[in-house]
Amino acid sequence: MRSSLRISTLFAFVLLFCALTAAYGQDTPSDATTLTANPVYQKSCAKCHGKTGEGRHFGGPSLVSEKVAATSADDLRNIINNGKGRMPKYAGKLTPEEINRLILQIKAAKTKQ
Fold this sequence. Notes:
It is a single chain. This protein is mostly helical and 113 residues long. It folds into two domains: 30 residues; 82 residues, Cytochrome c-like domain (Cytochrome Bc1 Complex, Chain D, domain 2). It has six helices and no strands.
């Protein structure tokens, strides 16, 4: 009897843990939902591309332009990893997950008309 009570209690605890984990994971974003709210963007990209991603005069180009929207994810990954022009390479400085998140957020950013 005592053993079955322990198993039942353990099973209930596991179910509760799984339900809480699923609920928390769905409602809370892992880092940030938008490009400009992403701490990786703010730390590594905003100084050249601007706090809003619209670019800076004598700095990095807009990340919310038609040109960037038309750029493939593979090309963006290559530019971030290896650099281009005055942009430094970020391979080894950012994790592949951070780079992938930036790419998804760049592609989802509202395009400046």
